[in-house]
Amino acid sequence: MGPVTIHHLALQADWDSARQAGEYRVSTRGCSLDDAGFIHCSRDLAQLRGVHSAFYTDVTEPLLVLDIDPAGLDVRVEDGFPHVYGPLPVSAVTAVHPFTP
Question: Which domain of life is it from (predicted)?
């Protein structure tokens, strides 16, 4: 079995800030890691599209998909979604792609 990758839908501006800071601290749209206690992720791209449909359809700024290697992170699956507890080091992001619905 190959490595597992989880995904996070990010605003371009939030990812740009994270790259400067060295860590990503946004749970989901309008909600920080400090607010929620975790960073909301998706197990696959189909689940990520569902998150987009539920929360991001009116967003006009660029959205990105962050591919995350969960090794060494505190990841817990809750309600079917992987959640990262604690800040996400930018080094755990293995690839960044523009989101296309």
Answer: Bacteria
Q: Show the tokens assigned to 2.
A: 């190959």
**Residue from 51, 48, 80 nearest 66 by CA:** 48
Domain carrying residue 33: 6-98
- Structurally, the chain folds into a number of domains equal to 1
pTM to 2 decimal places: 0.94
Residues 40/81, Cβ–Cβ less than 8 Å:
yes
Q: What string of pLDDT tens digits covers the 101 residues of the chain?
A: 345 899 999 999 999 999 999 999 999 999 999 999 999 999 999 999 999 999 999 999 999 999 999 999 999 999 999 999 999 999 999 999 999 87
- The pairing of strands 63-68 and 39-40 is unpaired
